[in-house]
Amino acid sequence: MTLQLGLATFSGGFIFAFLIRLLWGELVTNFGPAGGWLAAGFIVGTTWSLNHGVGLIYQTGAAWIDMAYAAGFGLFAANIIVDKADVGKGFVNIVFAIIGGILGGFLLSCMG
């Protein structure tokens, strides 16, 4: 992977985690449970189109897990850096990002 592709991939992952952190809670606060569904559609759909449709993320063999890991690790870093949370508390995000990536990959493999 070249430096340019690495920076583009990092940027795509950062944008996804940043938008989740910035907007998801606000949508849930303002619109309740429907806001969670709106956030899932708008945030995930828009960044998926940017990363995979436009091609911001450079994909290798395990491309079906990239956005789950970007969200998990990005929110983990935000919890540690911004919220000054304990690493152990942020570890829950990593575990669920891994589970989500595995589950998403399994479901996609069942369709092909």
TrEMBL record:
Parts of the chain that traverse the membrane: 6-24, 31-50, 56-78, 90-109
Protein name: Uncharacterized protein
The entry's keywords: Membrane, Transmembrane, Transmembrane helix
